[in-house]
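User: Please predict structures.

Assistant: First:
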Amino acid sequence: MEQARDPREGKQPSKQTPQQSAPGVERELQPRADHGEESYKGSGKLEGLTAIITGGDSGIGRAVAIAYAREGADIAIGYLSEKEEADARETAKWVEKAKRRCITQRFNVQHRDECRSFVERAVKELGRLDILVNNAAYQQEQKSILDITEEQLEGTFRTNIFGYFFMVQECLPHMKKGAVILNTGSVTALKGNETLLDYAATKGAIHVFTRSLASALAEQGIRVNCVAPGPVWTPLIPATMDRDHVERFGKNTFWGRPAQPAEIAPSYVFLASQDGRFYSGDVLAPTGSETTR
């Protein structure tokens, strides 16, 4: 039997962590994140299903893709930029290593026509659609609300909430009774964040969107839930935060460190599987107890 680990042990960013430009890429992240590549063990919880994951090239999205594949699901991964293409290919390799099919496509969730093209391709090539994971996100720290430009404000909302609407609108016609929609929320929606005002506002919108959509789709037998993580070590962090913030990122959790993506992915597995069949309209928050600090 594997010995239980002290959750206070784990990789932590430091002054030596290299800064990145947005959106950030997994291959340049130091220390490297754990997506469950060597640790996640599947047990057939999603056997024969198909999942779409936006922002699936890295971070939480990659960890969810690996976990879902090892649970038996085929995966369609969406990513934003040419810069992220290598990360998307790496994620696809892990999915295929689990003997599941994987397609990747570069597209921008801000535009509904691009969402439609991605969804149609996924359904055509993979044959069905059972799970949508809305995970693509953008954030940019600003010291004052006066520093948030109209361009940043619109971009954050178009990615973090418009994109969720668009993906649901395009996926829903292909979904049947028993399908699942999962949205990635955030601890910032639960407690706010003074330097991520626009991001926190979109995450709050996602939480309410989740509850409202769950009510709207209940009669169709489609469940809608949200995972609201605390600090998680992903490329977005050194790409959108200054060096001092990166160094102390996650230190206000009980464990004194940010979560690894592999520690968040099981929440998505639970909510997508029959284990979570009574859950809908709920927000599952693996925050490291940050909401109490």
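Second:
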Amino acid sequence: MPIERNERAGETTAREHRSIQTQAEQAETRSFQPKSEEAMQAGAREYPVPPFPKQHQAKPGEESRLDPAPLYDAPYYKGSGKLKDKVALITGADSGIGRAVAVLFAREGADIAIGYLSEDADAEETLAAVEKEGRRGVLVPGDVADPAYAEAAVRRTVEDLGRLDVLVNNAAFQEHVSDLDNLSEEQFDRTLKTNLYGYFHLAKAAVPHMTPGSAIIMTGSVTGIDGSRELLDYSMTKGGIHAFARSLAAHLMPKGIRVNAIAPGPVWTPLNPADRKAEDVSQFGAQSKMKRPAQPEEIAPAYVFLASPQCSSYITGEILPIIGGY
């Protein structure tokens, strides 16, 4: 083909490019919508958005004092026997994600051992919610960082409820620090003992009582994926939990026990006002893509999914982030 014909063909193609460009730019101008500044609402009911009242609590924090109260009862969630006659031990079940998981597990037919540190009033409310679903519950207070607690909690679960099918390692300790020099060895030790040792001891105590089809679910965190400049020790433990879940999944595969982790983003629970300054709590979750924190009832169905052999029998060693968008 002569050079002149190549040049004409090139000019023709360039004009086509410009025509497509013009059409696309005109279409964008006509259809452009400004970025929404409102928090995303995509659930069965509307969820609270920041700013929240400024508030701070002494550790370990009480759900009954949170304003607004966390939404955990999931009134539009209908059970269908996914955990019929199973027994679950859930740590940190007095409040937050743990309470919501306890309620939905009960709605799916499970009896619940409610592990918690010392928040008796909150734990009693979780127990009442479990019993309202027509299932049995037992309160198991104590410190997950204590190896003796793991043995005692599992023993109490099996003795009072007859078996153990699902372990939810969920209890956690968290404290922000703005500078590495402010991270004391006492805090570092407490975070690791609660978030890593606690998960290890409970898994070790639970596994001998589990049969094929049982499940272990661990609560990780988006901080264990992305890190967090003010949660150095906490982020490290959450990354460790993710690795522990993957490794334990492979280890327990011959026993037919599945192990998975869920990595939530910001969730409205007592963990945060018992950690952050009141001003920061007011804006908690506002920086997420949905511009609000999750409510516990928005996270809990994922635990049902990973606990149920009807739903997730081919899923083990997975880390499921639930962070409100990327």
